[in-house]
């Protein structure tokens, strides 16, 4: 579910125009083929649904009523209202959810000095980020701050960064959660090697 909250799209309903058939669909978009294959494996192992994608595209689609209804029932989805269902998860599931979310909407930003970095995740959903922040601190001892970024475009929603700033917290994030995304994992590991050597 963390992958869908970050880089996914969930649809349950009727299409527009002439095609009014009921559709139950989950889509995941990521330029990294490793992450697209991971999504496909998860959908198959959890729901028994085979996903579809074209080699030329970065989108993977999976269709299935039971899958879509289960996902909608487990957490609110939508740009401004996804929720983190931490109350129904054990520590391992929480770790996997947070890792998947950071794989999509997170990154490692290197500072102007070599030994400075920030692990962050951006969203327009402030309440969703607050639930992630709470789970990070309460279950993994990783403390973070949330910053607001106002858009210069009046129609755009403000964005928020959940930022892990202190080195000790970044090390804890690395050891207790980490990234599955290969490029982000490599960047964080290189930073950890620099500050712990």
- Report the span from N to C terminus: 36 Å
Query: Tally of extended strands?
Result: 7
Q: What is the CATH topology classification name of the largest domain?
A: Endonuclease I-creI
Q: Count of helices?
A: 7
In terms of topology, how is this protein built?
Blueprint: H1 2-7, E1 8-14, E2 22-29, H2 33-47, E3 59-63, H3 65-74, H4 91-105, E4 106-110, E5 117-123, H5 126-140, E6 145-149, E7 159-164, H6 167-176, H7 182-196
Antiparallel strand pairs: 1-2, 2-3, 4-5, 5-7, 6-7
Helix pairs in contact: 6-7
Task: Explain this structure.
With 197 residues, this protein is an alpha+beta fold. It folds into two domains: 73 residues, Endonuclease I-creI, CATH 3.10.28.10; 111 residues, Homing endonucleases (Endonuclease I-creI), CATH 3.10.28. 44% of the residues lie in helices and 22% in strands. The protein contains seven helices and seven strands. The strands form two sheets. The protein has a four-stranded antiparallel sheet. A three-stranded antiparallel sheet has the order 1-2-3. Helix 6 packs across helix 7. It is globular and about 60 Å long. It starts with a helix and ends with a helix.
């Amino acid at each position: 579910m963390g992958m869908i909250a970050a880089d996914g799209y969930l649809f349950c309903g009727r299409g527009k125009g002439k095609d009014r058939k009921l559709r139950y669909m989950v889509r995941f978009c990521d330029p990294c083929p490793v992450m697209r294959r991971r999504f496909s494996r998860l959908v198959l192992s959890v729901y028994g649904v085979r996903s579809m994608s074209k080699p030329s595209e970065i989108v993977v689609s999976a269709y299935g009523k039971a899958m879509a209804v289960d996902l909608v029932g487990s957490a609110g989805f939508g740009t401004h209202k996804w929720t983190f269902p931490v109350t129904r998860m054990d520590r391992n599931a929480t770790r996997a959810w947070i890792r998947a979310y950071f794989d999509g909407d997170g990154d490692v930003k290197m500072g102007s000095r070599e030994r400075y970095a920030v692990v962050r995740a951006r969203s327009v959903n402030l309440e969703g980020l607050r639930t992630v922040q709470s789970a990070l601190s309460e279950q993994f001892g990783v403390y973070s701050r949330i910053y607001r970024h106002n858009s210069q475009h009046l129609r755009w929603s403000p964005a928020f960064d959940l930022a892990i700033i202190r080195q000790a917290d970044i090390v804890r994030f690395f050891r207790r959660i980490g990234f599955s995304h290969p490029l982000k994992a490599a960047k964080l590991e290189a930073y950890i090697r620099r500050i712990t050597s």
